[in-house]
Design goal:
The complex is a heterodimer of chains A (407) and B (331). The longest helix of chain A is centred in the middle third of the chain and has 18 residues, at 189-206. Chain A folds into three domains: 2-105, Beta Barrel (OB fold (Dihydrolipoamide Acetyltransferase, E2P)); 122-198, no CATH class; 208-406, Chloramphenicol Acetyltransferase. Chain A has eleven helices and 19 strands. Chain A is α+β, with helices and mostly antiparallel strands and 407 residues long. In chain A, the strands form five sheets. In chain A, strands 9, 12, 15, 16, 17, 18 and 19 form a seven-stranded mixed beta sheet that branches. In chain A, strands 1-8-6-3 form a four-stranded antiparallel beta sheet, covered by helices on one side. Chain A has helices spanning 87-92, 99-105, 122-131, 149-159, 161-168, 189-206, 219-230, 240-254, 298-313, 319-323, 387-402, and strands spanning 2-5, 15-21, 28-29, 34-40, 43-48, 53-58, 65-67, 71-76, 209-217, 260-262, 266-268, 274-276, 278-279, 285-286, 289-290, 327-331, 350-354, 358-364, 367-381. In chain A, α3 (122-131) runs parallel beside α4 (149-159), α5 runs antiparallel to α6 and α8 packs across α9. The radius of gyration of chain A is 24 Å and the shape is globular. Chain B is of the alpha/beta class. Chain B folds into two domains: 2-189, Thiamin diphosphate (ThDP)-binding fold, Pyr/PP domains (Rossmann fold, 3-Layer(aba) Sandwich), CATH 3.40.50.970; 201-328, Rossmann fold (3-Layer(aba) Sandwich). Helices cover 36% and strands 23% of the residues of chain B. Chain B has a seven-stranded mixed beta sheet, with helices on both faces. Chain B has a five-stranded mixed beta sheet with strand order 10-12-11-14-15, sandwiched between helices. Chain B has a three-stranded antiparallel beta sheet with strand order 1-2-9. In chain B, α3 (65-77) runs parallel beside α4 and α8 packs across α12 (317-328). Chain B starts with a strand and ends with a helix. Classes of the chains: A alpha+beta (407), B alpha/beta (331). The interface between A and B is small, with 11 and 8 residues.
Chain lengths: 407, 331
């Protein structure tokens, strides 16, 4: 039996509200199926399942708000038999039966995690439970590190500010009027602003950034693009950013230290999932991930962008798109500032900044010329890497963009 | 001294006015006790009442607590409304059998036929260097007994008015009066009279912590709260007033507001009134607590005679201030 848990859709997410189950017990699901819709401060998210099997039991009711990691449903593997007969017995065990115990009841041995007891006042516990705050993340100010009401309230303000925003502003969801489901709370301009504020404050507070910048002559890349676009319909046309994303992904393969998380040390991430910053018209940002960019063709990357940008603006993203990025790219697009230095999105360790490609005076081989120039920057976490790594990474990106045919 | 709608009187005078008003109101009410008549009361509370009301209504009794409390119970059973004064709580143990076995039980034992409308007043409290045998805090002992109502008159209003309401009660009521306060002056409304005897009272509103006490101790709690306010701590002070049956709602309302509780009383810590209040808070407001409930109680020794040791044996204003600061970590 597999536990289907409330996923974390970003380091700043503490909990989510199940808005609707799209499956019922007995339904057969396969990897990638969307089985639930969950409301977070980032909006209504389709939640995918990563296992195959049959839905055995839905443990969470619709409109219930649960912390990240809460078991929401049990999925029986394809060879497992669902023990319907045992169900009444399990129900008798009463509501206090935790999902874990249910798993044990059907005979899957599980080693219990050693749990140290958290010292918190009854009131602090109650508030934390109500607000979905994880007490393990709070350092208590009381005697012997006991967590008080005040500590929890501070944590709510610090970590859950976006949620507070979501509570205050309801029924202001743009682009979601057509939803048949009644949504009481959702992402609002304000809550997204608060989510960005919380993540960026955390980043600036905790991450020692270092910054590098280089200029890349884009004439070859743009010529290659123009040529390539001749063969494509208007819809399929490629944008320069696609080439840049591809170049970055290939460079990341060479520098895995930059495609990592920093959490109690450096953790390399196998997949290269690039989070692409999309600014919302109403203010605030969404950072959906494009998965395995290094394995995608240029056209596939373009298709991904065409798919993801309108969905991000409509706040209709999938859970995996919001939670799984391993590196971020912020791109200003055309006719904008030439240089952008990003702020790292924790727990990632680097972000690349793509400025507008502008015509600049360019000295080469003792001659001056005018070239389309890209200013590309890297903001990286100095705990994870040093400037030398970052610099070699930027040189690798440059190398790829100077040989666009290699992409 | 009369200042507008308030009058400044001593605690002693407040008690006396209460007794006088009761005697004037109802001919069935009479006062009996050691030296209450000719001597004017051991603490001069009933001075002049013999002359005003005569020896039928102000009755000196022999030095036999068991005897005259029993006589009071008999009078109550026969339709009278006796006020029995036991000079101090220290001698009440001699009358304990009458109180616990007769006054408290007769209604039950008679199948509801016989109420015992008896009021017993006792002087009590510590702090006057009377040594171990005359410094008892037996409030918890009486508050333990089912069948009694137990009141603690910590304020002048209650000294003035509790007796009147107690006399209207069809069942036995014990009133603790605090001899330490007898000469203390305070302003009470000129219209002061009978008071409610079912509810605890918030004497000072606050938001940071609830200091719950009763009897003479409430004045230390109020002084502490005043001092704490200068340090930015807003303490709520509650006078329990009724030690049996305890008014849960006032306490729980306060706990829900402040989430922190300090209980203060002179009686020894083991099995005192605070123990009971603490247990009730655990039972009914556990999830409102942000700190463990704390108690300041009498040190568990026979109360010493020397002033400095007597002071050290009791919770003092400074102890309350320090304990609150410690709890709130203003330290």
């Amino acid at each position: 039996m597999v536990e289907f848990k409330m996923p974390s859709l970003g380091a700043d997410m503490e909990d989510g509200t199940l808005v609707e189950w799209l499956v019922k017990p007995g339904d057969i699901v396969k990897r990638g199926d969307i089985i639930a819709m969950v409301d977070t401060q980032k909006g209504l998210i389709d939640i995918e399942v990563f296992d195959e099997g049959t839905i055995a039991e839905l443990l969470i009711k619709e409109n219930e708000k649960v912390p990240v990691g809460t078991v929401m449903a049990l999925i029986a593997g394809s060879n497992e038999v669902i023990h319907h007969l045992e169900k009444p017995v399990m129900e008798q065990v009463s509501e206090t039966t935790t999902p874990k115990e249910v798993v044990k009841a059907v005979g899957i041995p599980e080693t219990p995690e050693p749990k140290h007891r958290i010292k918190a006042s009854p009131l602090a516990r109650k508030i934390a439970a109500d607000k979905g705050i994880d007490l393990t993340r709070i350092i208590g100010s009381g005697e012997g590190g006991a967590i008080s009401k005040e500590d929890v309230e501070k944590a709510i303000i610090e970590q859950m500010a976006p949620l507070a925003g979501a509570n205050i502003v309801s029924d202001q969801l743009p682009d979601q009027k057509a939803e048949s489901i009644e949504i009481k709370k959702g992402a609002s301009t304000e809550s997204i602003r608060m989510a960005v504020a919380a993540a960026m404050s955390k980043s600036n507070r905790e991450i020692p950034h270092y910054y590098l910048e280089t200029k890349i002559d884009m004439s070859k890349a743009l010529a290659w693009l123009m040529d390539a676009n001749k063969k494509r319909t208007l819809k399929q046309r490629l944008l320069p950013v696609v080439l840049i994303l591809k170049a970055i992904s290939k460079a990341l393969v060479e520098f895995p230290d930059l495609n990592s998380y920093w959490a109690d040390g450096l953790q390399h991430k196998e997949a290269i999932n690039i989070g692409f910053v999309i600014s919302l018209r109403t203010g605030g940002l969404m950072i959906p991930a494009i998965h395995n960019v290094n394995n995608l063709s240029i056209d596939e990357i373009m298709n991904s962008l065409n798919d993801i940008i309108p969905r991000a603006r409509a706040m209709k993203l999938r859970s995996s798109e919001l939670s799984e990025s391993t590196f971020t790219v912020t791109s200003l697009g055309e006719k904008n500032a030439e240089t952008v230095y990003g702020v790292i999105y924790p727990p990632q360790v680097a972000i690349a900044g793509i400025g507008s490609i502008t015509e600049q005076a360019w000295a080469e081989n003792g001659m001056l010329a005018v070239r389309p120039v890209l200013n590309i920057t890297l903001s990286a976490d100095h705990r994870a890497t040093d400037g030398a790594t970052g610099s070699r990474f930027l040189m690798a990106v440059k190398k790829y963009l100077l040989e666009p045919e290699s992409l | 001294m009369n200042t507008g709608n308030f009058i400044k009187i001593t605690y002693r005078e407040a008690i006396k006015q209460g007794i006088r008003e009761a005697l004037q109101k109802d001919e069935n009410i009479f006062l009996m006790g050691e030296d209450v008549g000719h001597y004017g009361g051991a603490f001069a509370v009933s001075k002049g009442l013999l002359q005003e009301f005569g020896s039928e209504r102000i009755m000196d009794v022999p030095l036999s607590e068991s005897g005259f409390v029993g006589a009071g119970i008999g009078a109550a059973l026969s339709g009278m409304r006796p006020i029995v004064e036991i000079m101090t709580v220290n001698f009440s143990l001699l009358a304990m059998d009458q109180i616990a076995n007769n006054a408290a039980t007769l209604l039950h034992m008679s199948g509801g036929q016989f109420n015992v409308p008896l009021v017993i007043r006792m002087g009590c409290g510590i702090g006057r260097q009377l040594a171990a045998q005359h410094s008892h805090s037996w409030e918890p002992l009486f508050a333990h007994i089912a069948g009694l109502k137990v009141l603690a008159a910590g304020t002048h209003e209650d000294a003035r008015g509790m007796l009147l309401t107690a006399l209207d009660d069809p069942d036995p009521v014990i009133i603790f009066e605090y001899t330490f306060l007898l000469n203390k002056e305070a302003e009470i409304p000129t219209t002061a009279g009978a008071v409610d005897i079912t509810k605890a009272k918030v004497l000072r509103q606050g938001t940071d912590i609830s200091i719950i006490s009763y009897g003479a101790c409430i004045h230390k709690a109020l002084d502490a709260a005043k001092e704490l306010a200068t340090a930015g701590i807003n303490a709520e002070v509650i006078d329990l007033r009724i030690l049996r049956p305890i008014d849960d709602s006032t306490i729980l309302t306060s706990v829900k507001k402040t989430n922190k509780v300090l209980l203060v009383e002179d009686a020894w810590a083991s099995l005192n009134v605070s123990s009971e209040i603490s247990a009730r808070i655990m039972e009914n407001a556990f999830y409102e607590l942000d700190l463990p409930v704390q108690r300041l109680s009498g040190v568990e020794v026979p109360i010493p005679y020397p002033k400095h040791l007597e002071d050290a044996a009791l919770p003092q204003t400074s102890d309350i201030i320090n304990q609150v600061k410690k709890m709130l970590q203003y330290g």
